[in-house]
Amino acid sequence: MSAVISPKALRPAAQGSFDLQRVRKDFPILALTVHGKPLAYLDNAASAQMPRQVLDRLIQYQTREHANVHRAVHTLSETATAAYEGARAKVQRFINAREEREVVYTRGTTDAINLVMHGYGRAFLGEGDEVIVSQLEHHSNIVPWQMLCGEKGCKLRVIPCDDRGVLLMDEYARLFNDRTRLVAVTHVSNALGTVNPMREMIELAHAHGVPVLVDGAQAVPHMRVDVQALDCDFYCFSGHKMCGPTGIGILYGKAEHLNRMQPYQGGGDMILSVTFEKTTYNAIPYKFEAGTPPIAAAVGLGATVDYLSAIGMENIAAWEHELLAYATEQVGGLQGVRIFGTAPDKAAVLSFEVAGVHPHDVGTILNEEGVAVRTGHHCAQPVMQRFGVPATARASFSFYNTLDEVDQLVAGIRRVQKMFG
Amino acid sequence: MDSKQLYQEVILDHNRKPRNWGKLEDASHRAEGLNPLCGDHIWITLKVDGDKVESLAFEGQSCAICKASASMMTTNVKGKTIPEIEQLIREFREMATGKLDVARAPNHLGRLSVFAGVKDLPARVKCAILPWHTLHAAFQRQASTSTEGDADPMSLNAENR
Predict the structure, then answer these.
(1) pLDDT tens by residue, A114-128
(2) Which of A44, A314, A345, B119 is 20 to 30 A from B142 in CA distance terms?
(3) Nearest-CA neighbor of A30 among A46, A13, A14, A48?
(4) Residues of A in contact with B41 (CB under 8 A)
């Protein structure tokens, strides 16, 4: 990254200790250049970058603490187990779960949703039962439920959204009937950035006696999430979208649900005793953690939680809000550019199209300018269908992004328009 | 590579003013091509007499690389025989996937070699190849083709295609 950061990029994001220049130094990858231009990494909704503090923790774990967990009596097995379980406790505090055992390690958000589909959906849903999802879902919160519907003869009901990408609460209320068994809805839309009114949606579902699974993949990295305040039944998120490692995610579930659910996979560590006649399953959360888990990734996730907490989720949310406001004004102000997703409550995601230019051409040319954006359907084809486009370009921001990077994006879009003009 | 090398004036021109755009009402062969990752979606219709392609047309929604590739394909293959065109399809695919160096190996691609740069943009290879795949599908009397699954030119299963 060029050493020159303009004063406006250093404007403090909020009251408190947030120092953008210092934060950027934590992320070695941000110093890269692409095609001779400083990298402007604006694909954070797909995967965020990792700070040195997490990288260091991974190295420390792998060089001084690693062995398999929950197994042997030797020292390293104990340090590894302590690190692995210690990270679980950090996550528990981070999302304010009531108990550590309500925090289940998974491979990621997709894996967490599939766990609930198998362990809860297949166990408790039957023919004619209904699952409510929304128009804004990522494929990972649609396809598992469709698979369940195909297998069990259940029905998928969809909450529609308006032209801003805001879910229609009246329509949502009308979807409930005596066959509604589960609501599975995203906290924040990955394609549009809409922040859904989760508390209100959960309250309504609970009034009908229906549990709620929240896809929090795009929410946890950007705002304070309190699962007890939300009163959600399940909450799923991924490590790599919050500056942690890939291959690790979390399923939070209320103990009362997790206790009665079926295991997802069978194997070691998820059992109490095995004979050829009968296997007794381990208690939660271990019942859902068959086989050797991604231990280093879990430990890294613990370090990620420490890192984000030290910066402060409020500071992160405040700065990202400024980035979004500036980007919306600058990109939205360009003639021939249309922004998708104009909800009043939005995370720092800007989906757009440049008139007459396919998003993939936009993405390729922006890359020449060092600007990394996602182009395509964002694994949310129903959202694309709602807005009548096959794909969009999407800039998604993290707290380490600068206003200068927004300017770099805008300059890139201008170049696209010039080339195709 | 620099995108200027790929987005050359000839490609931008074919994107702006695609040749042979539309649909042949009296087509003898037709096929639909889909690149689900990109959203490219094209239809090709052609009229074949004996083994010679008398005329062809295409339409659809796609990125500039796909549209220019389709447009230049239509101007290039018109009047050629199916075996000649199949040879071109093979060469185009090999060029786009970096297996054929057009500067060194003998080939029949001519002006189509403006797409050689796409080999350095793996995510865009499918965009350039889609029209050629679709044409091949039409010859095979296959109603539609996709750049995914077994037809994926970048897939691990693509060795023999």
Answers:
(1) 999 999 999 999 999
(2) B119
(3) A48
(4) 390
